[in-house]
Amino acid sequence: AILLGIGVPNMQTFIINNRLASATQEFYTALQFARSEAVRRAQQVTLVHHGASGSGNWGAGWTMFVDANSNGVQDAGEETLRAGAALQAPLTLYGNANFANMIAFDAGGRLTTAGGGAFVVCHGANLVEDGQSRARAVLINGAGRVRFGLDSNNDGVPEKDSGAVASCTNP
After folding, report:
1. What's the CA dihedral at 47, 52, 55, 61 to 10 degrees?
2. Which of 18, 23, 45, 102 gets the highest tally of CB atoms within 10 A of its CB?
3. CA angle centred on 50, ends 101 and 143, rounded to 5°
4. 154-167 per-position pLDDT tens digit
5. What is the rounded (10 degree) CA torsion for 10, 13, 17, 18?
6. Which H helix or E strand runs over 81?
C-alpha cells in the first residue's frame, strides 16, 4: 500500500508529461515541415485549424496544404501535405491572436503574418497543477524560426519572448 501510494502519483505525472511532450513535439515537427516545404517548393504552405473561426483552437485538428494562390484557404487542386488529428481530452492546443485561424510560411520560409507568435499545449485547464507544469509552448518568430518555449525561472509556466504564457487558451 505504501509503495502504491508513492508510485501511482509519480506514474500519473510521468504519463501527463509524456502526453504533453508528445503532442508538443508532433506540432513542432509539423511546423518545421511546413516551413521547409514552403522553401523547397518555393510556394506558400499554410496550416488551418478545424476549430471555430477565430478561436485559435488548434487542438480540434488542422490541415497543412500548398497554398498556390496564397489566400489562406484550401482551394480545389491545392495539395494537402499533412493533417493533424484532434487532441484527446484533456489536452488542448491554442494559438495566439496571430494564429487565430491559420499560419503560413512564404517561399522564403518566413511567416506571412507580422510579428510571429506562440502556441500553448496544456493538459487540463491550468498551466500548473499541484506544483507540476501542465503546459508547453511552441514559439515562432517573424523570420519563421520555430522553437520551444522555455521555463527559465522554473515556475512551471513556459515563457515567450515577452514573458510568461498567460493561460491555456491565451498564449
Report:
1. -40
2. 45
3. 40
4. 999 999 988 999 99
5. 60
6. strand 80-84
Cα distance between residue 71 and residue 78, in whole Å: 11
Over residues 103-119, the mean pLDDT reads: 94
C-alpha 160/C-alpha 143 separation (Å) is 16
Q: Would you say 154 and 132 are in contact if contact means Cβ atoms under 8 Å apart?
A: no
pTM given for the model: 0.92
Asked if 134 and 124 count as a contact pair (C-beta separation under 8 A), the reply is yes
Assigned C-alpha cell, 17: 508529461
The answer to whether the beta carbons of residues 138 and 122 sit under 8 Å apart is: no
41: exposed, middle or buried (Cβ count in 10 Å: 0-12, 13-18, 19+): middle
